[in-house]
Amino acid sequence: MRVLILGATGASGIKLIEESLAASHTIVVFARSPQKLPEHLANNPNVIIHKGELTDEVALANAMEGVQAILSALGPTGPFHPSGTPLAHAYSKILQMMKDRGIRRLIALGTPSIPDPEDKFSPSIYAMVITVSTFARTAYKEFVAIGNVMRTEGDGVDWTIARVPILTNAAEKKVAAGYVGDGKTSSYLTRAGFGAFVVEELDRNDWVKKFPFISLP
């Protein structure tokens, strides 16, 4: 499958590329700074690189040419994330462009800041969300807005938002998928696990139009 990966130059995006290549997909990278890609990925013959900003519709449309799915590791960069929910606005545009081009599948990164009716109370996750909403308010608002965009504008697209807890760089790829406070999930996940879950979900389609919470078991 030919897949477009957004947020590809970050730590989670790199793992997403590696897992996608391991599954024999052809990767299209759309990035503002593609020079940040590790050499082993930038020089891989199955990685096609497009440089551009999310606000550049022409460049984004060129990157979407011929792809069957979009995988995204886009997320706020930290407590100094800009106001105005730019990523949510980008997803709104991306959803429309997908519909116009008949691209059905989108799997993207989220966090528990996006609530789901299936969630139950978890002290650790509640503390995490409160901390983010207090000390990284624009990042919190961004994820909430992304969730709202999917709910209100996602008709016609088979989207999944994989909500993650605290991410680590360990090599473990085991993932438990469920909802907050369900007794199966925990407060940590590896970036490799995130990449593995997304690539598996691309094949299995178990969580279409849902907000699964994924973590280490």
TrEMBL record:
<protein>
    <submittedName>
        <fullName>NAD(P)-binding protein</fullName>
    </submittedName>
</protein>
